[in-house]
What does this fold into?
Amino acid sequence: MSDRISSSDTARIAGFDPATQPVLGCEALPGLPAECLRLDYIRDAFQRPVHWQVEPLFTESFSPAVVGPSGARQAAVLMPLVQRDQGLHVVFTRRAEHLHDHAGQISFPGGRIEASDRDPIAAALRETREEIGIDRQFVRVIGVQPSFLTSTHFVMTPIIGELLPGFTIQSDGQEVAEVFEVPLGILMDPAQHRLHELRLPDGAARCYFSITWQSYFIWGATAVLIRNFYHYLAAARLGQ
It folds into this structure.
């Protein structure tokens, strides 16, 4: 299989548009029933052993042997779930265009783990407060997903959290251009997951997942973490 690509690789590939790259055939996976998209189901899944595997195309990037290489920068992100009348939604940010890393890309709130952070959970909560103004008292942590090594040597640990009633959003305009929500049902529908291939000038190939919702194109590491969450919830259902 081809090597993987993250959104930061765009800086090294002139004229690269991730939305227009060829789409590869991808294994057809079953959808999740509505019960799997409820908070009570997700909470329960993280409170019991779930036998599952990460996204097979990116197994090496989730391997404990490669998520701690020398020089890798430790980071944590929060996947914020919020209950709406229409069902669960996930909060995303669109990063400011002037940022050095992942400029203009869609991502979860989060960032580097600082020495003052107790663990990845503390880092994700701190970064969420700094980026979009949601205080940690309005976040109920549900669980932690496997860390992912990006091609730019960030070890990204995703934290699954529930946003509690009363939270407000006040984004930092220096880091965040926009905050928006996507229905969890869209993200957890494997029919919405597309696998792209990029051919580099030297003949090498890279691949990445993407998900499109309205005008938003979610791809790279963020899309892989979404795909991984699907695998987890699907396995939890089979293990009931």
Helices lie at 39-46, 59-62, 120-132, 184-187, 221-238. Residues 6 and 221 are 6 Å apart (CA to CA).
